[in-house]
Amino acid sequence: MGTHAARVPSRWRVHGRNKGVLGTEPDGRPIAFTGTAVWEVRDGRLARNWVERASWELRQRLTA
């Protein structure tokens, strides 16, 4: 039986409170950022993934 692989893209958004994310002072402010991921599934199992998130923009907002 051969190996079956597929790549599945996703886009997501995280909501929460700042508890010191990205080395900033934990101040409890609401935070939100987006990202994308590509999941490689091989034979029904996660083989690897690639993630990109908008952390630079989040850090800029928290340190402004």
UniProtKB/TrEMBL annotation:
<dbReference type="InterPro" id="IPR009959">
    <property type="entry name" value="Cyclase_SnoaL-like"/>
</dbReference>
<dbReference type="Pfam" id="PF07366">
    <property type="entry name" value="SnoaL"/>
</dbReference>
<protein>
    <recommendedName>
        <fullName>SnoaL-like polyketide cyclase</fullName>
    </recommendedName>
</protein>
<dbReference type="InterPro" id="IPR032710">
    <property type="entry name" value="NTF2-like_dom_sf"/>
</dbReference>
